[in-house]
Predict the structure.
Amino acid sequence: MSTFGLDRLLRSRRGNVSILYALVAPILVFAGGAAIDYGRAAQVHTKLNAAADAAALAALTPSMLGQSTSVAHDAAVNMFTGLADGITSLTPGATQVTVTVTVDTTSLTRTVEVSYSTSVNTIFAQVLGRPTLSLSGVSKASAEAPPNIDFYVLLDNSPSMALPATAAGITQMQNLTSKETLMTDAGSGGCAFACHQASTNNSDSAGNPCTDGTSPTQSGTSPSGKTVTNAYCTSRHGAQIDNYALARKNNITLRLDELNSGVSTLVQTASTSASSTVFATPPKYRFAIYSMDSLWQIGLNQLMSLTSSYTSGWTSASANFGVMEMYSNNNDCANSACSSGTSTPGGDVATNYDDSLGKLSTTSYIPNPGNGTNQPGDTPQEVLFIVTDGVEDEQSGSQRLEQTMNDLAGDPNGRPYGNAPGTNWCSDIKNRGIKIAILYTDYLQVTANAWYVSHIEPFQPDIGSALQACATPGLFIDEANDTNIGADLAKLFNLAAVPGHLTQ
């Protein structure tokens, strides 16, 4: 029998390579397959660990701390199960979760431990007899009893907060006010702002209905000489109504309306949290509420003094919260009746953060915080809530500043900042141990408005980041348009009131 062919193959280097490849190829295939299986398992493990973290924290929210340990246990189990059910590669029926909830009666600290075990199906390893890979993990979190807190709420009621609350409302306002932009040579897109100002032959209200309900019949002339028909009312029909009245006439909900009801949700959330608790001593909350302007005058305005009766207090105080009235364009009201106007302090510069935050940074407004315990001599923690669209508009000497909040570098046009050099109100407040929680009601892009394009658009993308830098880490929410301000304020309260934290 001839072995010539075999001998030749063995002596050939190419033959050796073929033999080696044939021997190694299955190993390489299974090794690659195993790597894929283990990679998938690692991704699933990460998701399960995140689910365990979320489950542990779910038992430590302020509302859950007001429930029994059994209710908290079920909340954690349901959170983990709900998240784990969304992971399709887990072996059916293999997932087990154990939740342990304990309360230290001395420190009033609730500790939650979530442990799980499960397995993930394999693709390649099952050929080698490993149809599944086992996974397990543990997450532990704790939270102390809710501390006593005094909340100071600063509400932005500047004219820009009189935007409609929804995108549909903005479009409706622009359609109703198309002649206003024609009269000011600002285009033809209409004005989305529900400005509240006297309007006799005022271009900012051109085309609006007359006070007696009729439509305007007199023509007007724009600065460029363009004639705009049916812009103004004759004297016998009264002045045309302002944009604020126009919004009310057409049942358009404004951001300020949402904010007013949102504060009601905030204080009710606090009341519920304070009255429903498993701890021997429930937390004590007090609220003081301010607006950046009064109903007729620029400057910090106290709507409700610090009180523990904050739900009924806001019911009464909310009647005095609304958009600041202007006598006319760029002229403030000289008195509460707004029977005459004044150009002091400088027209419609109604978002003065330096005035509001400068005052609130002092101990005469917000005292130094304590630890919030019930130990003798201790005082409440302090939290400053700010709800704003984040655009500063104030007078600094002869200059008007239009810029992001707390912008120490000056406004986009290079003009100097209004406070003392280096003053950072946000840092000053936080350095005193006061938390700052901010709800950003997005300054929406109103590109059809020429004033917005020239004054706000250059720095609009930086507004949110400036506010987030001002807030205490973890206490910032960007409230997008068409969402629920009340729900976001309640969420922000929960974040500020009881900071449950992971310990493992």
